[in-house]
Amino acid sequence: MSKHASEEYLEGPARGDVERWLRDRIAELEEELSYLKALLAMLSGGQGGEADPRRVRPGERVEEVRVGRRRIARVFKGEDYVRLAPLEPLALPPEAKAYLEEVVAEIRAEQARSGHEEGLARLEIRESEERGLLEARIEGLKNTLEVIKAKAALKHVAEVAWQYTRALSRSGESD
User: Fold this and answer.
1) CA angle 91, 161, 65 (to 5 degrees)
2) Residue 109, H or E segment
3) Is the whole model's pTM more than 0.70, yes or no?
């Protein structure tokens, strides 16, 4: 078959269908590759423990939390949760923890009023002595409004924790 004959074979609607199929297939493969890379990162991220909370997990969307130009944390949105992972050591003041508990209590109350009785929103905070806040996670979110509230609360807490940590380090320098 000559070059001209093969071009004619893929003219018209058939060519558009093949191009569309190829673009869709490439997108599917890229998405699968992204999931596989995230899975590999999770498996190799921890030495037998949990994976690094700062890394994206399959199916999550990521937003940066910034103070000025400085990136201080990441907020990850999963299917029914939102989590915060600091990019640098942050001390979590008790008032910030209380604020998160209040936000989660409001979400739980609204869920209960809406008839949800199982899987209500809950807060999980992981901290370490060396790094301070490792991860704050709000799970059991049922709708977009709850996700927006949780994400805004986590971003606010990251900014407050950054300011608090900065103030602690300054007071330590002046002693």
Assistant:
1) 125
2) helix 94-113
3) no
